[in-house]
Amino acid sequence: xxxxxxxxxxxxxxxxxxxxxxxxxxxxxxxxxxxxxxxxxxxxxxxxxxxxxxxxxxxxxxxxxxxxxxxxxxxxxxxxxxxxxxxxxxxxxxxxxxxxxxxxxxxxxxxxxxxxxxxxxxxxxxxxx
Length: 129
Hints:
74% of the residues lie in helices and 0% in strands. By secondary structure, it is mainly alpha-helical. The protein has one domain (18-120). α2 (21-39) runs antiparallel to α4 (64-91) and α5 crosses α6. The chain is elongated.
């Protein structure tokens, strides 16, 4: 029984789960499109994108500074989410360095898609005797 408790505690300190593919893909594609719009707006085939193209062209033509600032704000938010993931790891007893690094990186790249998994994690607390 002591071995099982020790193994369970070790597993809890190294808790890590990957994000689901769809939310991760949406985040990556959204940030990639955002970067494309901000840095290479002249190469976007606006007419081929339908309503998204028309809306994007309007934003590029009339609000490029806002788009540029919004792009960097999005990455700043991802950094903040990653740092918050580190705080959550500590509060939930995740002490394994590799697991913490994976949470940081996954949250940096996928944002709330990753952070929501960590927020939902409820470690089982062992009674001290």
